Amino acid sequence: MSYPEMRLRRLRRTEGLRRMVRQIRLSTDNLIHPIFVQEGIEEPVPISSMPGVYRLPLEGVEGDAEEAVELGIPAVILFGIPAHKDEKGSSAYDDDNGIVQSTVRAVKARLGEKIVVITDLCLCEYTSHGHCGVLKDGAVINDETLKLLGQTAVSQAKAGADIVAPSGMMDGQVYAIRQALDDNGYPDTIIMAYSAKSASAFYSPFREAAESTPQVGDRRSYQMDYSNPDEAMREIELDIEEGADMIMVKPALAYLDLISRAKSLFGYPTAAYNVSGEYSLVKAAAEKGWIDEKKIVLETLTAIRRAGADMILTYHAKDAARWLREGK
Fold first, then answer.
1. Which residues are catalytic?
2. Distance separating alpha carbons of residues 246 and 164, to the nearest angstrom
3. Of 8, 14, 121, 278, which has the highest C-beta tally within 10 A?
4. CATH number for 205
């Protein structure tokens, strides 16, 4: 059947009809709220390149997480900025005083199972050189780094993290983390693997937020070349074989093809990270009055869902949750 008998516009005529036939629905259930927590500060510190986003003191994180829960957001992901940095990122696996470990304990004490706490698992915020692993002669040493990632995962799980999210793109990191968790009595801790994480220019504002800019070189020797979609699928497949419970594609918007392909090929719970640069571009245009921020954000997040993402890590999470409550 074709025109004039078939008229697809019939189903678009009213908002009620559009709601009835809508295929992809964006929900607060799909959102993960990122939080930056910084050791040694007493007040929130605004991040200049990410309007509306702050580094929070430990005492402010519980309230921020509780607000996310009240908005219907099921999960937060924590990024720590420690007071002490060294060559091996020792603050990352400090059981007693690590900033992320302390934050996990505080959030879980206040909210318990009302919230899923995810911990970013990487060394870049904790190393004095800003790289994601042990650095020797200008190169990141993969296998030495794996031991520290396993140690960090156990430390975060011990503090109460529900999910650890390794983002360093070391070969074998998921296997090393799964073994460390299982061997130390944390077989139920979930691994959300940053499986296809590209070396992207979209991360620039994050590096200000997390104070994680490399002091020498860059991360292209371990983060993915964004020109290689087949390699991205191999990375995801290997992470699944090593024990990942969830996979992630990062960034999201310029990588919708990878999200779609990953979901189609593997069928695993799939996350996508709507990263800092993507957020800041929208905020900057909105501040100029060039775009309708609400409409752009909801369209963008729906596009990420449409590509196949089950979970979206996004700095728009709380605003999006409010807008979803209001109705599109």
1. 197, 250
2. 10
3. 121
4. 3.20.20.70
